[in-house]
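#random but structural
TW: two for the price of one
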Amino acid sequence: MAQVEATTERIIEADAETVFDALADYTGTRSKLLPEHFSEYEVREGGDGEGTLVHWKLQATSKRVRDCLLEVTEPTDGQLVEKDRNSSMVTTWTVTPAGEGRARAVVSTVWNGAGGIGGFFERTFAPKGLGRIYDTVLDNLAKEVGV
């Protein structure tokens, strides 16, 4: 099994604290950022960063739906880590200043991929597909908090 990774980033016209606070707001802002690939969104515990437990289904393709139950931690300032209790998937959101009134938001997801020919296709296509989904989330985030 090889590890699969999908990463994308965006410069957002808002300060890093505003961007991070929006991402960490699972009871409010976060659900507004999610495209149609996400369904059954539900905050089960907490709701603001560290200590949040959130559920959603992620439909990456017409046939692939992942049931996610994510524990949220904040290991360092400007970083949210979402660990899926149902799989090896871990998504890390990192927000850093990028000049006056601007922030760099980076999202990276890693998981243990399948073996064999299925794993080959997963390693080849899944990062691009997930990258497109998270590009949409980052676009929505920029619209939500941007100046």
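TW: number two ↓
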Amino acid sequence: MADATTAPGQPQHLQLADGSSLLLDGNSALDINLTEMQRGLTLRRGRLWIDAAKDPQHPLIITAGEASVRVIGTHFSVMRSGDRVTVTVEEGQVAVSDNLDHQAMLVGGQQIALQGGALGPVSTVAIPLTRAWKEGRIIFDDAEISEVVAQLERMLPGRVLIDKQAFSELRVSGSFHANQPAALIETLTDVFGITVHNLPGNLLWLRPTHTS
């Protein structure tokens, strides 16, 4: 029922009537509300990169779960996976707030995550790594398994099932083509000691190959 949706592994470029450019990642859904009085986007799921057109009189407001992002004009991305929302600013400045009325100002090269309805700390990120997905590559740098699972679900139909506790100490690093999920799965099995089971209904079950 969203205004714009993408299938897994099929990102889509969008041009809005206000002049803003968007890139909606695979397996994402977005609502668009542009009027003479306001500019609003709601990210239902997935990941969105935005080159926001400047309009000081009508800031662009992006809602993702319990996070709200206010911006006049800049380059940034918003990712929503479950109850976790991550905002990354490439250029310019944005204000991110949560449902507890906490607010953080981010500038280029900064990132913040919201989980459980509350903002976390602002961190510094390497923009070439965070924007790699726009160029068709996925780069993990000491990533937790939940980040890998979220990426797989943007590349493949269906869901990925894991026991997070079983992978609590696992960290994944590597560079992969965004349109080659099989290469990522092969690396998980060959390098990181994960067994992958294909279940009916487009389900992948990841479990440790060796258990104590």
